[in-house]
Design goal:
Two copies of one chain form a homodimer. With 299 residues, chain A is an alpha/beta fold. Helices cover 51% and strands 11% of the residues of chain A. Chain A folds into two domains: 169 residues, NAD(P)-binding Rossmann-like Domain (Rossmann fold, 3-Layer(aba) Sandwich), CATH 3.40.50; 89 residues, 6-phosphogluconate dehydrogenase C-terminal fold, CATH 1.10.3660.10.
């Protein structure tokens, strides 16, 4: 049974876990720590955990479950900091968007502990302690990527924990996770960051024009491109091979479309655009997005 | 004064114009035509225009303003159909997303008429007569691209018309329009269509996984990639040079990021991601998108 959870890092994800526990699993005690004193102060005011501690060592004391909610590039250092204070039987988990690199970093820092990497596929473009909310994980998938020799009982405990917070849990191989998320999350972010950057750097079209006429599609990309810069820098550096692999596929397909436009091959364009329309229907049918037009924006 | 508007093409845009006139300018008479009898039947039921006619010739009779709401590739044929039935002083306009090609097509088909191309930068991913709504143009920009020698009084009339429907009007050179919209609308659509296609074609990641984990960013792209295939095919074929120019810039920038990822250059990534975050704030500050996190999706 999980009696106490320590949350290391109190941004959007860490804060939402604290609030979700308070709402859905009030019997679980929580302690939270963030390296930034200003974040700790806000976390205290917002009640993101029962105890906001002055060190991560203090937060993890007696915790059955420690969840590292820091950028994936900071996992190893965060794990080393708490190594000596952890309960020997504690489950160490995280919420990072790349899983092979995290498994490696945590195994290196904590060779004698049970490490079960996790990735709740949920978030918004906001970040920081004020961005969290209790229902962030409701009906979202949380992917666990336990190593083959992980303690099955502990995997079940972690799975139950995420289910309590409202998530649906799936087990997956870390390598496969990294490939799936490269295409469903990392590449979409990369191309959104890119086009927003391209648009703001043009000489022929002013930045104010780009913003003014953004309702034609561009504004959707600005939302994604507003996500946390440090988190995303780390994701790309830590899921490099899957991201580069998927980027190669994307670029090939884009080049083919470029050729179709140049040669006036309308059939190729029409065929693709009809296929992609069907995918949207599946996303909505499977409850992964609202059916309301334009994301239900107020018109 | 505009007393009667003829709407040719009763999809999302044409239907919304009809409904917006009914709501905001009830003194203006409306006639509507669509080449598809099923669309005409639905338009009749939905009241998209006062008179749904059996031919475009019938619809434009006595109209002061004729708005062609057909895919940009179909403009010339639609204009030729009505050429002999138009009032000599009628204003001929449209709602197409590319303006140089439309200006050319309409001038060719109707050399003796006043042509004022227009582009309301508004829409959703839905299409067809049932997708329209009266407030589609509220607070959205409508760009008019009159030729230099266009009758100023008629430009003012058309401008007033769009203002009545709730839009904000801007005049622009057609060539510049095509460049601005290439970057704020056409390229975003093209890359959304591409990534959704790429994701659904992978061997290593199943289509059901792509849909299941789409909340990580991909689902935003599926919305855009659900837009009308014929309309978008025509946009790319008719704004070819601006689209290819902007696509070249995008590809250069993407290649630079690819290199940064490969070489582990985190500073380049972080710098870009911080800049793009600022653009989002401007989009929201200028009322071009809601401030609510995640587009205000229900969590």
């Amino acid at each position: 049974m999980i009696r106490k959870v320590a949350i290391i890092g109190l941004g959007l994800l860490g804060g939402s876990i604290g609030l979700a526990i308070r709402e859905h699993a009030p019997n679980i005690a929580t302690a939270g720590f963030d390296a930034d004193p200003e974040v700790r102060r806000k976390a205290q005011t917002l009640g993101l955990a029962q105890h906001i501690t002055h060190s991560s060592v203090e937060a993890v004391r007696d915790a059955d479950l420690v969840i590292l909610c820091v950028p994936v590039g900071a996992m190893e250092a965060a794990a080393l900091d708490i190594a000596d204070a952890l309960r020997p039987d504690a489950i160490i988990s995280d919420v990072g968007s790349s899983k092979q690199s995290v498994a490696e970093a945590l195994s290196k820092a904590l060779p004698n502990h049970t490490i079960i990497p996790a990735h709740p596929v949920a978030g918004t473009e906001q970040s920081g302690p004020e961005a969290g909310f209790a229902s962030l994980f409701a009906n979202r998938w949380c992917i666990l990527t336990p190593h083959g020799d992980a303690d099955a009982a502990k995997v079940a405990l972690l799975s139950d924990f995420w289910t309590q917070l409202g998530a649906r849990v799936e087990l997956m191989d870390a390598e496969h996770h990294d490939l799936v998320l490269a295409v469903t999350s990392h590449i979409p972010h990369l191309i959104a960051f890119t086009i927003v950057g391209t648009a703001s750097d043009l000489e022929e079209v002013t930045r104010s024009e780009v913003i003014k006429y953004s309702a034609g599609g561009f504004r959707d990309f600005t939302r994604i491109a507003a996500s946390d810069p440090v988190m995303w820098r780390d994701v790309f550096l830590n899921n490099k091979s899957a991201v580069l692999e998927m980027l190669g596929r994307f670029t090939e397909d884009l080049t083919a479309l470029q050729r179709a436009i140049r040669s006036g091959d309308g059939d190729t364009l029409h065929d693709l655009f009809s296929r992609t329309r069907a995918i949207r229907r599946e996303v909505v049918d499977q409850g992964q997005d609202d059916a309301a037009p334009d994301f239900g924006r107020d018109h």
